[in-house]
Amino acid sequence: MASNMTEERLAARTYVYTVLQNILGNDPTAEQFEALDQEVLSAAYEELGLGDSATLNRLVANAAQDVESAKREYMRVFVGPFKLPTPLWESVHMTGEDALFQEITLQVRKRYRAEGILPAEYPHVPDDHIALELDFLRTLAVRAQEALAAGDEEACRAALVSSHEFLEKHLTRWAHRFAKGLEQSGCSAYYAGVASAAARFADADAAWLSEALA
Phi/psi of residue 118, each to 5°? Predict the structure, then answer.
């Protein structure tokens, strides 16, 4: 294993994926904001060499001051009933076709199944939803972290290889488009900022995995 493949680093990856997936995949609540430990997030960013997490922490702190406004923004961005400001699905961003359950969706589903993972909302939500892709990576991050802690380097590497392949073939190819779509819509500075943080983290994680797994 690479010298920088430590339990601390893998724990930091898990925490960042968990935070980003929780925000982009769940209706905001006071409990959600209270559970996000900004000190832990800052430490995770530092451990991963991502720089300062102040921008993300500030976005979360501002949203936590008005949970009802955050709820309305979440409905506007992720639920409707009106037209969503930007598609939530990889296939729509990558093909430009306003249709769900495309070939890319099936490719993502195969990746989930190959790892024995079935999304919680299956089959009602397309597998290439931004929150489901983040949750897949969060699950793999947990596997890698737990495997290394148990001394199973082979299982750890397998989870990281799968993560890298998924990032390269899927999330990093469209996460910035999703974030830019939210930013341009002007409907939620909070979710646009978190989406941008997720896109940047996906890029950074893919780059680190390329080096660590070489």
Answer: -120, 120
Q: With contact defined as beta carbons under 8 Å apart, do 86 and 40 qualify?
A: no
Prediction pTM value: 0.95
The 8 Å CB, 24+ separation contacts for 38-47 are 40/15, 41/15, 41/16, 43/12, 44/11, 44/12, 44/13, 44/15, 44/16, 45/12, 45/16, 47/8, 47/9, 47/12
Instruction: Tell me the C-alpha distance between 61 and 33, whole Å.
Output: 8
| C-alpha dihedral sign at 159, 15, 64, 193 | negative
CA distance 179 to 184: 9
* Residues found in the chain: 214
Instruction: Give yes or no for a contact between 210 and 164, defined as CB atoms under 8 angstroms apart.
Output: yes
- pLDDT tens digits for 146-197? 999 999 999 999 999 999 999 999 999 999 999 999 999 999 999 999 999 9
Distance, CA of 30 to CA of 202 (rounded, Å): 27
Distance of CA 179 to the CA centre of its chain: 12
